[in-house]
# Entry
Amino acid sequence: MRLTIKSRLQLALNLVIVSMSTLAAAGMLLLVSWFEDTLFYNHLQSDLTDLISHHQGITEPLVLPMTDTVYYKLPKNDQSLLPEAFRDYPQGAHEILLPNKAYNLFVHNESGWKHVLVQDQSEFERYELLVFIGVSLGAY
# Structure
């Protein structure tokens, strides 16, 4: 069965609309991931570097709670002050998802000390989920 010119044009237009919506949705989701990777991680890495330099002279374990972050300076062989969920991570950046909570964790090992910066990202994760749901519903 041959399609009329009108049917073919409608089909082509619908395919263009679906393709553009899918492309826009994928772009938005990639943009959110890029923001998280570059903005949050670079900012937190800078904060950790500043905290390490400011507390270099302290020779005993330190737990420094701030607004939504906590800085830990601990001996490498004693992690007892660090909550169980944040122990045994290698140096670098990590995203930790727990039930109803999300954290970004930065670990830096230096001269017998383990420096850990933990930021509560739960609110951002909720917004990220809402963006994903909204984009998915809006695209389809």
